[in-house]
Amino acid sequence: MTTRIGDIHIERHGFVATVTIDRPPVNSMSVDLMRDLADALEELGKDGATRAVVLATRGKVFCAGADLTRRADEIGIAARADSPGTNPLYDQAVRLFSTELPIVAAIQGAAVGAGLGLAMVADVRIASPEARFTANFVKLGFHPGFGLTYTLPRLIGRGPAEVMFLTGARVDAEEARRIGLVNEIVLQKDLLAAAKTHAASIAENAPLAVRSTRKTLRSDLAASVRAATDREFAEQQWLMKTDDFREGVKSVNERRPGDFKGC
Question: What is the pLDDT of residues 101-141, one digit of tens each?
Fold first, then answer.
């Protein structure tokens, strides 16, 4: 059975649910999209039947992150009126990291910026050889977000995370596996099936024990993501007002090095 919440498609097979983001052309992030995703994952966690989730997206790009050419309030990186220190997009990020079911991500292409942050929501990441991972915030004159300053070093270690953050360099699938960002690489044609098989290997176990173990492993995760996003957003607010940010967004869209002035 397949159901849909906005741009989120949910298909159940046995104890595994496949949750697919379908927002062409590059699955750009928005508050509504992340809210729908969080709603879907929370509902699956309550349905009494689902034991594991495959997180996938359609198209060649896993998730291109937030479209910074749009207004901040349109993509959810403007401050909330009732809470100036937080924003709606990061509220949804905290919800995603609070969900209870184990998640296997199938990453078929580029995971960029906040799209990389979305990949960090998963417990297991399976990628095709075409997958690419980029924390390109500094190339945009911007600060990392979506909790990445906590989740990425926690996963791959401080050194590799610092290289990704400070250079903005793209990491291919093989390098991602070497540093622990990816658990397995499979051919593109086999990717979704491999992710479903891995999720099924989780779902065959005692569900209460799986949830209990996962809860211990991720006990401080949501709170730490909240603290990280609060800090990230404070930095993003003033950086968005700089000339370098405007130049960074323009230069990335024009596929050229930025001409930054430090102002």
Answer: 999 999 999 999 999 999 999 999 999 999 999 999 999 99
- Report which secondary-structure segment, H or E, holds 226: helix 221-239
Q: What is the pLDDT of residues 138-175, one digit of tens each?
A: 999 999 999 999 999 999 999 999 999 999 999 999 99
| Cα–Cα distance measured from residue 85 to residue 228, given in angstroms and rounded to the nearest whole number | 12
pTM: 0.93
CA distance 3 to 5: 7
Please state, in angstroms and rounded to a whole number, the distance separating the CA atoms of residues 109 and 61: 5
Q: Rounded to an integer, what distance in angstroms lies between the CA atom of residue 244 and that of residue 262?
A: 6
Matching CATH number, 2-187, of 3.90.226.10, 3.40.30.10, 3.40.50.720, 3.30.450.40: 3.90.226.10
Distances (CA, A) of 199 to 3, 15, 122, 125: 19, 9, 11, 11
